[in-house]
Amino acid sequence: MKKIIRFFKESFAELKKVTWPSREEVASSTKVVLVSVILIALALGIVDFLIFRGIDLIF
Question: What secondary structure, in 3-state letters, does the chain show?
């Protein structure tokens, strides 16, 4: 039981040392991720459409 308590105390102490991002940094990073995901999804959608269109022309 002592090991478990020590583990949580040490974990909590390490979390105090972490430099957490500000709200603005998190919002900015989230926007970058969302835009990237949308662009990649659109690109994959276009490629998928073109492949199926090509298969339809062949068969």
Answer: CHHHHHHHHHHHHHHHHCCCCCHHHHHHHHHHHHHHHHHHHHHHHHHHHHHHHHHHHHC
| Residue 43: per-residue pLDDT | 98
- pLDDT at 52 (0 to 100): 95
Nearby residues of 21 by Cβ (< 8 Å), 6 or more positions away: 29
Distances (CA, A) of 49 to 2, 53, 59: 60, 6, 15
What is the model's pLDDT at position 35? 98
Collect the ranges in the chain with pLDDT lower than 50. Answer: none
